[in-house]
Amino acid sequence: MRLNHISNMVTIFRSDIDVQHSLFSVLLSVIVINIAYILRVEKWKLEYIAFLLSIPISVLICGWRARWNAIQASFLGGIFTLSLLCAYSTNNLYLSIFAWYFACMAVFHYGEFLVTALTNRPDLNFSSYLLDHSLAYWAAALISWVEYAVEVHFLPHLKNVAVSYVGLILIIFGEILRKLAMIHANGGFTHMIAIKKCPKHKLITSGVYGFVRHPGYLGWLVWCLGTQVMLCNPVCLILYLLVGWNFFNERIYWEERYLTSFFGTEYIQYQRNVPLGIPFIKGYKSQSSR
C-alpha cells in the first residue's frame, strides 16, 4: 500500500503539469528571495523587490493559462521565505512571533494544494490553496492582526514567547492531523460537502478515522486556535473558538446526514464506535441510531 502511494506521488510529480507549475513557482520564489538576501544590497529592500518580481516571472514562464496557479504558489513561497528570514534576522520578539505566524499560514495553504494533488487529483483546482476560502476567513485573520498590533503597543506584557511555543506545537499537531485525514481518506476528502454519493466514495474507518470521525475538522480547529495562541491573542482565541465551534456544529450535522444516507447502518455503527472529535458537537443522529 505504501509503495503504491509513493508510486502515485512520483507519477504525479513527473506528469502533472499543474503540480509542476506550482512547485516551480514556489521554488523560484524561495530561491530568488534567498539570493537577494545573500546579496544584502540595502537590507530587506532587495528581498521585497525579489518577492514582487518572482510572481510575474512565474506567470511568464508557466504561461497565462496557469497564471492563478503560479501567482498563488509564488506568493505563498515568498511569504514563507520572507517570514523565516525576518524571524531569523530580527531582534524584535514581537516581529519574530508575527513572522513565524505568517510562515505557518503559508505552509498550511500550500499544503492544502499539494496534498489535494497527491490524494484527490480530480478535485484539484486553483481554489485548492484556500486563499479564496471566504471573506469571513480573511476578516477573522485581519482582526487577529489588528489585535496583535494593538496589544503589542498597549499591552506588550501579554506577548510571551513560551506561550507562542505552545501555539506552534498546536499548529504543528493540527496541521499533521488534517493532512493525515486528507491522506487516509484516499480521495474521499473534499473541501466542499458532498451531497451526492460518487462511485469513489468509501467509508474510511482506519488510520486517524479510527480515533475520531472528523479528524480534518478537528485538525483545522486546533491549527486555527494554535495561531491565536502563538500570537498570544486572548480576544481572538475566544472568538475563533466560538465561531469555529458554531461553524463545525452546523457543518458536521449536515455532513453526517448525507453520510448516513450514503452508507446507512454502516455509518450509524461507525458513529457508535468512534467519537466525533470536537467536544460538545453531537452531529446528526438518525431515528434508528437514537
TrEMBL record:
EC assignment: 2.1.1.100
Localisation: Endoplasmic reticulum membrane; Membrane
Record field: catalytic activity: [protein]-C-terminal S-[(2E,6E)-farnesyl]-L-cysteine + S-adenosyl-L-methionine = [protein]-C-terminal S-[(2E,6E)-farnesyl]-L-cysteine methyl ester + S-adenosyl-L-homocysteine
Residues that span the membrane, as ranges: 20-39, 46-66, 72-90, 97-115, 135-155, 162-181, 220-243
Function as written in the Swiss-Prot or TrEMBL entry: Catalyzes the post-translational methylation of isoprenylated C-terminal cysteine residues.
UniProt family annotation: Belongs to the class VI-like SAM-binding methyltransferase superfamily. Isoprenylcysteine carboxyl methyltransferase family.
Protein's name according to its UniProt entry: Protein-S-isoprenylcysteine O-methyltransferase
Native source species: Brugia pahangi
